[in-house]
Amino acid sequence: MTVAHVHAQPPAGVSTETYATVAATGTRAAGATGGRRRRARRDWAGWWFVGPFMLVFGLVFVAPLVYAIFLSLFRETLIGGNSFVGLENYAKALVDPKFWEAMLRVSIFLLVQVPIMLGLGLFAALALDSARLRWVPFYRLSIFLPYAVPGVVAVMIWGYMYGSQFGLVADINRFFGVELPSPLAENLILLSIGNIVTWEFVGYNMLIFFSALKAVPQELYEAAEIDGAGAFRTIFSIKLPSIRGAIVIATIFSVIGSFQLFNEPSILQTIAPNSITTYFTPNLYAFNLSFAGSQFNYAAAIAIVSGVITMVVAYLVQLAGEKNEATS
Q1: HSE (CB half, 13 Å, CA atoms) of 213?
Q2: FRET partner for 42 with CA separation of 20 to 30 A, picked from 27, 93, 131, 324?
Q3: Is 209 exposed, middle or buried (0-12, 13-18, 19+ CB in 10 A)?
């Protein structure tokens, strides 16, 4: 007699139906317990993979953010030391004309520079994807190469060329006997910074768009060719709609980068102190408040307010991109 036959016989005094119900319940309970144990093992295995990232994320992002918020709630006074002031630093930031002047400046920079930069990057990606150019890898590397140059080095290169007493502009003035407007003048400095940023990041955005174009199914191009669509019709009806997501992502990155503008004005300030103030951008303002003015608490509040504004604008850009994608 097998084990199955032994367990199939109910004990004395127990009906067959009752015994079968109890046995089935016990089997399900044992199976559920085993499943929970297996799920627990799987959950812990997942945390072993995610854990290192979460640890680094907490140390380099969450902890500094929490500390900045903590600092922004206090104020250093001559009498009494560091005292809790609640939201007073934020109230002061919201009516600070220097902060809003800096925010207006980066907003103008965003509205002018970002469309030009993304347009040039998109044009370069479409040209490389058109199969009409030879040596595509060479052109792709050449356009991307400025992004590989460290930002500080790039600003120093362009700052030297901008100089009206030295560098390229000075040489042109002396050679042709003319007096070109100084790119470091107060009324041109924002355009000069925009030129540097565009030179640095066109290749980066070009690579995003070019990678997205390579993922477009070849069958769409074949169908367009059968329908007699020309190059421009293919671009506007197939290529651009297919990479709309990449365009939105690049726009969000550019918006965030514009509000975080710091390296370029910070370095150029040494050679154009009359054109670039200590509050030229929100980040530069917070930096100077903290390290030059020792106003760490107020600088933290400025940084938090600037970060919230950046987050809101980036979110609105994302919503607009999703809405356009849904209606197309």
Answers
A1: 22
A2: 27
A3: buried
Tokens of 236: 């506007």
Q: Report the distance separating Cα 139 and Cα 206, nearest Å.
A: 11
DSSP 236: I
* Single-letter amino acid, residue 135: W
**Sign of the Cα pseudo-torsion (137, 140, 143, 145, in order):** negative
- CA separation for the pair 198, 201 (Å, rounded): 5
| Cα–Cα distance for residue pair 302/281, rounded to 1 Å | 11
The sign one gets for the Cα dihedral 279, 280, 283, 288 is negative
Alpha carbons 196 and 184: distance in angstroms, whole number: 12
Each residue's pLDDT tens digit, 28-45: 555 555 555 555 556 677
pLDDT digits (tens, 9 = 90+) for 250-275: 999 999 999 999 999 999 998 888 89
Rounded Cα–Cα distance for residues 303 and 301 (Å): 5
Share of the chain above pLDDT 70, in %: 85
DSSP code, position 180: P
Inter-axis angle of helices 97-129 and 136-148, nearest 10: 160
Rounded-to-integer distance, Cα 101 and Cα 160, Å:
28
DSSP conformation letters of 87-107: THHHHHHHT-HHHHHHHHHHH
Q: Is residue 102 a contact partner of residue 279, using CB atoms and an 8 Å limit?
A: yes
